[in-house]
Amino acid sequence: MGHGIAQVSAMTGHEVVLRDLDEELVSKGIDAIRVNLEGGVERDKVTREEMTSTLDRIASKTDLQSAIEGADLVVEAVPEKLSLKKNVLSESEKFLDEEAVLATNTSSLSVTELASALERPGQFVGLHFFNPVHIMALVEVIIAERTTDKTHTLVLDYVASLEKTPVTVRDSPGFASSRLGVALGVEAIRMVEKGVASPQDIDTAMELGYNHPMGPLELTDVVGLDVRLDILEYLREELGERFKPPQLLKRKVRAGKTGKKSGEGFYVWEDGDRVAMSDEWSIQ
């Protein structure tokens, strides 16, 4: 998600620093941005000049302090692990100017709980971008208990500058989008588990019957089955058994079938394209 946020920020005129733990990881992020932009050029969505200027606005660093000193806004986008995010956020806050805003890109974790690790929780907010960031128009803005109105206004202006639409949600488990999206996804997985219909037919039903751009099982593959499992386990703890993860999901994650990134989830993926269903499926 980090490289996608960096891309859309740079495309809309912001000066950006993309930071990761080592040079290899940072280079992968820059390469992913370049691939996205080249695809846009091929489809006449982006000009060659826009591609060049976007890349020129993105610096890459591995040192945290030099990466974020002087920044107006820092968006953390590390994996969905509460302790990891707390550590990264508290370390980042040490190097920020007093007026700077710190944000977390999370799809389910409590923003208020993350804020407890900070000295200035009023200048902290959740920014839930959607994947792929350069295509999806929505950003969910999550307001924690101590987020100030000034911080809220600043991030709303930032999202608007990206030419995306913000929705504001009070901090609650799963917020709005993840809670509803995961509820749909988990029911689709249960339907496959019970033999109601194939993944492809379930997805087609939602795409054609409800005008969803992508079916819930293909979306689970794109998001990552392991990510969906983590979210479900968190929501089950917070909201109850209706979010209990299906055994089918657990088995696939244990087998390393985590979706598009591993090459297999509910579908088989090759070079980023869906090519087949993962398992043979038929109504008996």
TrEMBL record:
Span of domain 3-hydroxyacyl-CoA dehydrogenase C-terminal: 174-269
Residues spanning the signal sequence: none
UniProt-recorded name of the protein: 3-hydroxyacyl-CoA dehydrogenase family protein
GO molecular function: NAD+ binding; oxidoreductase activity, acting on the CH-OH group of donors, NAD or NADP as acceptor
Single GO BP term: fatty acid metabolic process
UniProt entry keywords in alphabetical sequence: Oxidoreductase
Site feature: Important for catalytic activity: H128
InterPro entries: 3-OHacyl-CoA_DH (IPR022694), 3-OHacyl-CoA_DH_NAD-bd (IPR006176), 3HC_DH_C (IPR006108), 6-PGluconate_DH-like_C_sf (IPR008927), 6PGD_dom2 (IPR013328), NAD(P)-bd_dom_sf (IPR036291)
Provenance organism: Haladaptatus pallidirubidus
3-hydroxyacyl-CoA dehydrogenase NAD binding domain sequence ranges: 1-171
Transmembrane segment boundaries: none
Lineage start: Archaea, Methanobacteriati, Methanobacteriota, Stenosarchaea group, Halobacteria
